[in-house]
Structures are given as structure tokens and as C-alpha cells.
Amino acid sequence: MKELHNVNVAMRTLARELLESGTVAGVYGWKKGSRPTLTSPLYIQDAAKADRLAYDQYAVSNLSALLLDHRNNDKKRAIFVKGCDSRGVVRLLQDQQITPEQVLVIGLPCPGMVDEAGSLLTKCAECRFPNPVMADQVLGGVEVSKQPSAPTGVTAEAARKVGVGSRAGERMAQVAQLEGKTAAEKEAYWAEQHDKCIRCYACRNVCPACNCRDCIFDTEKKGWVSKAATSSANAFFAITRAMHVAGRCVDCGECERVCPMDIPIMTVNRKLQQDIEALFGPYDAGVDETVVPPLGRYQTDDPEEFL
Ligand code: SF4
Ligand code: SF4
Ligand code: SF4
After folding, report:
1. Which ranges constitute the DSSP H helices of 48-182?
2. Helices marked H in 21-164
3. N or C: which end of the chain has fewer CB within 10 A?
4. Torsion over CA: 200, 122, 67, 41 (sign)
5. What is the helix (H) or strand (E) element at residue 154, kind and residue range?
6. Which parts of the sequence belong to the 4Fe-4S ferredoxin-type domain (predicted)?
7. How far is the C-alpha of 195 from the C-alpha of 90, rounded, in Å?
8. What is the pLDDT of residues 160-207, one digit of tens each?
9. Backbone phi, then psi, for 104, in 5-degree steps?
10. 80 CB-contact burial (10 Å; exposed 0-12 / middle 13-18 / buried 19+)
11. Could you tell me the CA-to-CA distances from 106 to 64, 212, 302 in Å, in that order?
12. Tell me, what DSSP letter sits at residue 142?
């Protein structure tokens, strides 16, 4: 894609300038991996390495959680963002994990990311905010927007396979399917899913909303949580993770994408999104920094009967 070629040139030039001038201490972007269909995160501190930056339709990783590595360091870092990365940055700013002075956000156009076969990824087919929702500057003429839209610029082949723009409305389809089951059927379904979990914590580590400084699942104190990958301990982990990101999950789909056991983590996240919207009204986490998450504010007319 010619547009992305131009974006790559602009990315490398900008990163080089930012590092040479000392404007930032480091730059987060992506690089080509060991296969043509692999584009993985890259962090550079040396301007001479700017030419390693690469952005294409395989740059699926959400980089925002990587900023947590520097939350105790005042130096500014630049980060290139698609829509989902930018929502992660908003999450970190709202959670006061980083300050605006610590980050320079550079928005990029997102065509929607594809797998090795060229098919649009599920998370991208269902994406509602492919454009950066915030940025200090942009490349590739992308518009900063808090309005929902579909990814643009996907290949005609990928668009044919998945019907681009038609699946954002189906984000809750899996939730609806499970809602139709009996309690016993739901229990059996989730037990089967949780039994698969190997407690690798990839879902936690990739998540911008899972940003507690001390995770309860890392505690060395006895009697808090079991680290064993048993069915009940795994269920406890899954429910704890889901409740910790409830109302704060930015819907980037990374947790499910990186899960090596194909556990449908987004189904739980979206069930919570649905319930929160039913109780508190429409809300998209990580889109508008000025809107306090529903579970982060208290109102006397909150729909909680026990209050
Ligand atoms: S989830 Fe949206 S913003 Fe993120 S890579 Fe996919 S289409 Fe782009
Ligand atoms: S990524 Fe999947 S297997 Fe790993 S801890 Fe999370 S749910 Fe379990
Ligand atoms: S819970 Fe999953 S979808 Fe939500 S912000 Fe974290 S990684 Fe993204």
C-alpha cells in the first residue's frame, strides 16, 4: 500500500528527529519480524535505529501497555498509535499510571490488521475506533476522532472474506448466544474454557487496563490466591481479571488475541460492557479522557439497590 509506505518513511524521519533533538528518550513502534507476516513491537533509544521502524497490516500489537515500563521515570517517550493503542494511552492517563508530560502520542491511520492468510482479524473486524482518539501529532493524514467508524483501507480480498464494517454490530453476538443457555450449560461452558488456562498471564501482561502496580496474582503471601492451574483457581483468576477491567477495558481485543489456549476472553469483557451500559448508559472506555468511567464515580442515584 502506497499510503503505508509513505507513513513508514514519515515514522522513521520523525523518530530520528525526536531522538536526535532529545525531545524524547525513547520511541515505541513496530519492526518487521522473522517472517513477512510478522510485525512486532520495537522500542528504540538510538536515532541510528530509526530505520528499523516498520508499520504495515501485521502491526497488530497494542503498544500502550509497554508505557508502564516507564511509569516511574519522568523522561518523555514517543509512541505511535492506531485507534486501539490510543485508547490504551487514554486508559493509562485516566488511571494516572502516566502523565501527559511522559508521553508524546503520534497517530497513524489503521487499515485493519490481517492474519497470515490475509483475513482481517476478528478484533479489527469488530473495531469501532480505528482512528486515534487522541494524538499530539499525526502522520498519513489520519483524522483524530472520537466518533465510531470502520477500519478503512483494508485489502479488497480481506474485505470480501469478513465483510468489513458489518461486524461491529455483532460484537455482542457471542454474549447473546451464551445468554440463551441455561445456568448449568453456562457453567459447563466456562468450566471447559477455564480448564484450558495455563496461567501464563499473557492476557494480563498485554492489557493497558490491567495496570495495578502489584498484581494479586504475583503475591508471595500465602492464602491469597492459588497459582495452581486448577479449574477453580483458573476461574477465580478469570473472574478477578474481568472485574478489575470492568468499565475500564478499552475493547482492544489483545487479551483474547494473545491467549495461547483460545479462551474467549472478550465474551466476558463484552458481557460486562453490556451490563454496565444497561445500568449506566452508553459508554466507550478510553475514548474521551474527560469522561470518568461509570464504576469510577459515585452518584446518589446510581442503580445499585444496596447503596
Ligand atoms: S482493533 Fe481497530 S485500531 Fe486496533 S488494529 Fe484493529 S482496526 Fe486497528
Ligand atoms: S492468556 Fe489465556 S492461558 Fe494465559 S493466563 Fe490468560 S486466559 Fe490463561
Ligand atoms: S481486557 Fe483485553 S480488550 Fe480490554 S483493554 Fe485489556 S487487553 Fe484490551
Report:
1. 83-94, 122-125, 156-162, 173-179
2. 83-94, 122-125, 156-162
3. C
4. positive
5. none
6. 187-218, 240-269
7. 34
8. 444 444 455 577 888 989 999 999 999 999 999 999 999 999 999 999
9. -115, 115
10. buried
11. 12, 25, 37
12. P
CA 117 to chain centre: 22
Which pLDDT tens digit goes with each residue over 22-78?
A: 999 999 999 999 999 999 999 999 999 999 999 999 999 999 999 999 999 999 999
Q: Which residues line ligand 1 (CB under 6 A)?
A: 60, 82-84, 110, 112-113, 123-124, 127, 130, 151, 252-253
Instruction: Tell me the C-alpha distance between 196 and 206, whole Å.
Output: 19
Cell of 147: 466518533
What is the spatial distance between Cα 282 and Cα 250, in angstroms, rounded to a whole number?
14
Integer Cα distance of 111 and 195 in angstroms: 36
Rounded to whole angstroms, the Cα distance separating 253 from 261 reads 15
Give burial (CB, 10 Å; 0-12/13-18/19+) of 2: exposed
| CA 57 to ligand 1 center in whole angstroms | 10
> Whose C-alpha lies nearest to ligand 3, atom 4?
249
Q: Whole-angstrom Cα distance, residue 82 to residue 7? A: 12
Asked whether 209 lines ligand 3 (CB < 6 A), one says yes
pTM given for the model: 0.93
Q: Domains along the chain? A: 2-168 (3.40.50), 171-290 (no CATH)
Cα separation, 16 vs 148, in Å, equals: 33
